[in-house]
Write a structure and sequence with these properties.
The complex is a heterotrimer of chains A (402), B (335) and C (332).
Chain A (H helix, E strand, L loop, with lengths): L1 H11 L3 H23 L21 E4 L3 E10 L3 E6 L5 E8 L5 E6 L6 E7 L6 E3 L1 E3 L5 E4 L6 E4 L7 E10 L3 E6 L10 H37 L1 H15 L3 H12 L3 H28 L2 H8 L4 H37 L11 H9 L8 H33 L1
Antiparallel strand pairs in A: 1-12, 2-11, 3-4, 4-5, 5-10, 6-9, 6-11, 7-10, 8-9
Chain B lengths: L9 E11 L4 H8 L7 E12 L4 E5 L6 H8 L7 E6 L2 E2 H6 L1 H4 L2 E4 L13 H11 L8 H11 L16 H13 L5 E5 L7 H18 L2 E6 L2 H7 L2 E6 L2 E7 H6 L4 H9 L38 H5 L5 E2 L5 E2 L4 H4 L2
Parallel strand pairs in B: 3-8, 3-9, 6-7, 7-8
Antiparallel strand pairs in B: 1-2, 1-4, 4-5, 9-10, 10-12, 11-12
Helix pairs in contact in B: 5-6, 5-7, 6-7, 7-8
Chain C lengths: L10 E12 L2 E13 L4 E5 L6 H8 L7 E10 L2 E2 L5 H7 L4 E4 L3 H4 L6 H12 L4 H14 L5 H4 L9 H13 L5 E5 L7 H18 L2 E6 L2 H7 L2 E6 L2 E7 H6 L4 H8 L55 E2 L13
Parallel strand pairs in C: 3-8, 3-9, 6-7, 7-8
Antiparallel strand pairs in C: 1-2, 1-4, 4-5, 9-10, 10-11
Helix pairs in contact in C: 4-5, 4-7, 5-7
The chains are: A alpha+beta (402), B alpha/beta (335), C alpha/beta (332).
Chain lengths: 402, 335, 332
């Protein structure tokens, strides 16, 4: 067996490009298997991303949610204060004192190291104005221009007896240190993680789908070849009928009926791809059935099942394996197209196709990364699997002629 | 099981096999409307004969004579469209239904390339059937296959090899081992030495004769090579276009053929000779089995033909002691 | 009746060596093969698989492709050396002056061309004749090989003929250019006995009438003995014996030839074990310099491991053996 494997590999590696593509394919396979271990984040966990991270370019840092502290301040004759202690013990104090010229001075104390990104004053009287702050055009909200400086509030000629308002502090979230290597998409998902998980889905769908089609299709092909007559005609006519409908339409029909989900996509792929396997198996099986060794097996009174699985099928395998590799690539493309069109996988489990679809609207704005990276990865995966399949086909052809 | 010495081991009763050339949908409509005829080939046409235990019967004929089709019917690999075959008085259906019983008739094929599955090791090729049918326990399989290989003159260490690693002659031996592994009583050899070189052919012929003697086998030997037939067979059946034209002992057949076709075969047979041979002009081609000539199939090439030959199929009748010929003029042919 | 032809050889093969340089090693398919063919003469080359007989035929025709090539030796047609010719030059010979016939007629015949087209193509390729003359030649060719109603059959396709007819058409195509030499590689092996007899008969007649030389390659000694004037016996890539048919068949001298003849069923008593040759043919990669048959020969002596010279007991015979059984010895 080792000898066979060795001679297989030495012949395979006669074309270096095929070896490169084989390595690439294996890397993708590794991604698929080890996705939870390799991906920096889990793109399925809705809690781990937020819209505030949306559409960040590659290399951006993830921001945590800003901390918002709201402190209601009630001032009597222009004097008042409020203090708030945060969960981690940080103490913030806001003090309002009147000034000599009838203005109110607001000072906010907070410990060093506590980064304030914005201070807003809410619910001030309409006619009040705050020096050093910007007024919100609609709401009664003033945002301090420089949070470090105290604010000076003017309330008119007289200091009001009672003044109630709120001081809202927004603390700058420290950078978490997580870099989005490939940026984020419109939902705030890390592209790299989404792509890795997307590769996993594509690979599983491709491999399992193509394998399932091979099992179903080859069985039907063997049955058609063995029994001949009406059964053969029936199976082949069904195959012809199905081949006359474009595969994407079959997929759309099936998924619209069945709904979304990885298992439904697998069913759709099997329903689309079985025909090629069935036809190929049938034509090889028909030729093999005429061989003397099949007659010998009949003479030895072996059962039909045994003859088909043990004697005929192994001889059908070389062309079937080539079709299998090529169909894996085609299944991946199919799934991507279906997801792109909106059927297939649910939104929360993005495949490469869906990522491309989501990023499609941003293609021509500057947010290129949302569609390009998944697209490139899909391209690379499909091309390398196809090259490997081509090489297998070339390797097996001269042997068939022998 | 005690068997009466003369009771035949296998008997063909009026066996016929017709292959209809499949008509497509449109063509079958036309046929129903009466516009065209159903094309069919009568590969085997009402053949009856018997084989007695221990004897070797040769079947000789050229392409289109139906000998290979007949062989497969006798081996239980294909079914006749008419008539039946009895093996030890059990009709085909019965003896085929019991797998173990049916193993008693085995066949050895012509083409060493295609008669063994290229993807199976020798141990599987030879050992599969005995294990599947419970003749030997699985644990003993490799040891049993080794014994079988030794019996046919192959190195027992070959059990792990694949067919492509063997020469043609060795592959034929594997085929013989495969048949012997299930303990047959009747061995049908379909052109088993035709694809082999002269020296290898001699080895395989000798092997077949050896196992025939050692295991007391009855044999049906099909060939187009009259020299081999003469060497191996006790009785000979000559076939032409699906019909038996002559049956006789080997000696009688070669010394005094009683059918014009047998005469022609013997005349045309290449013989190792020291001088150039003067050939008699033999006319005619072998007709296509789809449209055989009416009456006696051989009439277009026959120099003894009369009008009767064109309209009636000559019956296979007694033409001397222990022999039959299907020719109404057989008395004129002797010599 | 065969006219008397001059004795200068039409074809002279001298010490021909054709080797195949494969990854597994050098396969010496043809080693130091020499024989001649005269005008109007039929030379039969007999051997089993691996004997190199087909490769010899292909070498003469210049049809050896890499990884094989003619390593040394010469092939002369009427004095003209063929081994050094380029493909272009050879094309003037192939079809026009030497023709080849293969075992499977469908290797030669194009299934989508009428036989009339194919035969006339062979003519017009090498000669410029008027269409009428070409037509006449084609009809003539079909008549000589015994195809009935040739006029009508010219427009038929190969699949409309039986195997025997097809082979006859191939022979007709080979003859229509009036070549000087025909090489036939197992032309009747796949045909029925009665058809084979007819074709051999017709071929013999043609050779006698046209004076074409014929090399008939086959493994079937019986057919060759009925047709050939002289026989060349090959084993494992070399010639072991040449001579007239009468000499080879009636008085074989090389142990292999003797054993080969002895193993033919018709030369053995029915029912007794055939006199078979023990052992198997050696691999063509690992051959030594000596006689390739030595490993299976019961007359082997130590000198058999050295290169074997040719022994010429008569002017027409050559035997490559140094331990030929004497007349009075009983060959087992």
């Amino acid at each position: 067996m080792i000898h066979l494997a060795r001679s297989f590999f030495s012949e395979f590696s006669e074309k270096p490009i095929a070896v490169i593509c084989l390595v690439i394919t294996l890397i993708f396979a590794g991604c698929a298997v080890f996705a939870p271990l390799i991906a920096p984040m889990n793109p399925y966990d809705l809690r781990t991303f937020s819209l505030s991270d949306a559409r960040l370019p590659p290399g951006a840092q993830q921001m945590e949610e800003a901390l918002i502290v709201t402190m209601p301040l009630s001032a009597q004759a222009g004097e008042g204060g409020v203090e708030q202690v945060l969960e981690d013990g940080t103490r913030i104090v806001a003090t309002l004192t009147p000034d000599v010229d009838g203005r109110l001075r607001l000072e906010i104390e907070f410990p060093d190291g506590f980064e304030i990104s914005a201070i807003r004053l809410l619910s001030l009287p309409r006619d009040a104005s705050v020096a050093g702050a910007r007024r919100h055009p609609i709401r009664s909200e003033w945002t301090l221009i420089d949070p470090a400086q105290p604010a000076v509030i003017e309330t008119g000629p007289q200091i009001p007896t009672v003044l109630d308002f709120s001081v809202v502090l927004e603390a700058t979230s420290p950078a978490t240190g997580t870099t989005f290597a490939l940026g984020t998409d419109g939902f705030g998902r890390d592209m790299l993680s989404a792509i890795i998980y997307g590769v996993r889905i594509s690979f599983i769908v491709g491999a399992v789908g193509a394998l399932g089609s091979m099992i179903v299709g080859s069985s039907l092909g063997l049955i058609a070849a063995w029994y001949g007559g009406r059964i053969d005609s029936a199976i082949m006519r069904i195959a012809d009928f199905q081949l006359s409908i474009p595969s994407l339409m079959v997929g759309l029909l099936v998924l619209t009926v069945l709904g979304k989900g990885v298992d439904k996509i697998l069913i759709a792929i099997v329903l689309i791809q079985w025909t090629l396997f069935a036809r190929t198996t049938r034509s090889v099986a028909l030729a093999e059935l005429r061989s003397d060794y099949v007659d010998a097996a009949r003479g030895l009174r072996l059962s039909a099942l045994r003859i088909n699985l043990r004697h005929i099928l192994p001889n059908c395998l070389p062309p079937l394996l080539v079709i299998l590799t090529i169909n894996i690539a085609s299944a991946i493309t199919l799934e991507a197209s279906l997801s792109f069109l909106g059927v297939g996988l649910p939104l929360t489990q993005p495949s490469l196709g869906m990522l491309i679809a989501n990023g499609y609207e941003y293609m021509f704005s500057k947010l290129y990364w949302i569609a390009i990276y998944p697209g490139l990865v899909l391209l690379l995966m499909v091309v390398s699997i196809n090259v490997v399949g081509d090489r297998l086909r070339d390797m097996y052809n001269p042997q068939l002629k022998r | 099981m005690t068997v009466v010495a003369d009771a035949p081991i296998i008997v063909a009763h009026g066996v016929s096999k017709t292959f209809t050339l499949e008509a497509g949908f449109m063509a079958s409509i036309c046929q129903r409307l009466g516009n065209s005829e159903r094309r069919s080939v009568r590969a085997v046409d009402d053949v009856s004969f018997e084989v007695r235990p221990g004897e070797t019967v040769g079947i000789v004929g050229e392409s289109g004579c139906g000998k290979s089709t007949l062989a497969r019917i006798l081996a239980g690999i294909s079914l006749p469209t008419d008539g039946n075959v009895t093996f030890r008085d059990q009709s085909t259906k019965d003896w085929l239904s019991d797998a173990r019983k049916a193993l008693r008739v085995q066949m050895i094929f012509q083409d060493p390339q295609s008669s063994i599955n290229p993807r199976m090791k020798v141990s599987d090729v030879v050992g599969e059937a005995p294990v599947v049918h419970g003749l030997i326990p699985r644990a003993r399989r490799d040891a049993y296959v080794r014994e079988c290989l030794e019996k046919v003159g192959l190195d027992p260490d070959f059990i792990h090899r694949y067919p492509h690693q063997f020469s043609g002659g060795q592959r034929q031996r594997v085929g013989i081992a495969r048949a012997l592994a299930v303990n047959p009583e009747l061995l049908i050899c379909d052109e088993s030495v035709a694809a082999l070189d002269v020296s290898v052919q001699a080895q395989i012929i000798n092997l077949l004769m050896e196992i025939r003697a050692e295991f007391g086998l009855t044999m049906l030997f099909i060939s187009h090579d009259l020299g081999v037939i003469r060497h191996m067979c006790d009785r000979v059946i000559v076939m032409y276009l699906g019909r038996i034209v002559e049956v006789a002992t080997a000696k009688d057949l070669f010394e005094s053929p009683r059918h014009p076709y047998t005469r022609m075969l013997l005349d045309g047979m290449p013989r190792v000779t020291t001088h150039r041979r003067e050939f008699m002009t033999i006319k005619g081609e072998i007709p296509s089995p789809i449209n055989p000539p009416p009456g006696c199939h051989f009439n277009p090439r026959c120099k003894f033909r009369t009008d009767e030959c064109l309209s009636q199929r000559p019956p296979l009748e007694q033409a001397g002691e222990n022999r039959k010929a299907a020719c109404i003029h057989w008395r004129q042919i002797s010599g | 009746m065969k006219a008397a032809y001059p004795a200068t050889p039409l074809l002279d093969v001298d010490e021909l060596n054709t080797w195949f340089f494969t990854k597994a090693g050098v396969v010496k398919s043809v080693r130091n093969v020499s024989f001649t063919v005269g005008r109007g003469e039929v030379v039969g080359v007999v051997g089993e698989s691996g004997s190199g007989k087909s490769v010899t035929g292909l070498s003469i025709m210049g049809l050896i492709d890499p990884p094989g090539r003619i390593v040394s030796g010469s092939v002369r047609l009427n004095g003209q050396e063929l081994t050094g010719l380029t493909e272009r030059q050879f094309r003037k010979y192939r079809g026009a002056r030497i023709a080849m016939i293969f075992q499977n007629p469908m290797m030669t015949l194009n299934p989508v061309q009428t036989i009339g087209d194919q035969i006339s193509e062979a003519v017009t390729e090498h000669e410029s004749l008027s269409p009428r003359e070409v037509h006449a030649r084609c009809i003539d060719a079909l008549k000589t090989v015994g195809i009935p109603s040739p006029e009508e059959r010219l427009t038929a396709y190969p699949h409309e003929f039986s195997g025997g007819m097809r082979q006859r058409i191939v022979i007709a195509t080979a003859l229509v250019t009036r070549p000087e030499l025909i090489i036939a590689d197992e032309p009747t092996t796949a045909l029925d006995v009665t058809i084979q007899a007819q074709i051999i008969h017709q071929t013999r007649k043609l050779i006698d009438e046209t004076g074409t030389g014929l090399v008939w390659i086959s493994h079937d000694l019986a057919t060759l003995s009925e047709l050939a004037d002289r026989i060349v016996v090959m084993y494992a890539g070399t010639v072991v014996e040449t001579g007239t048919t009468a000499e080879i068949i009636g008085n074989p001298k090389h142990p292999y030839t003797i054993r080969l003849l002895d193993s033919v069923p018709s030369r053995n008593e029915p029912g007794r074990p055939l006199r078979q040759i023990p052992g198997i043919m050696p691999s063509l990669i690992s051959l030594g310099e000596g006689c390739p048959f030595a490993s299976r020969c019961d007359r082997r002596i130590p000198r058999c491991d050295q290169p074997i010279p040719a022994v010429t007991p008569t002017s027409t015979r050559r035997v490559y053996c140094i331990n030929i059984p004497q007349e009075d010895e009983v060959t087992a």
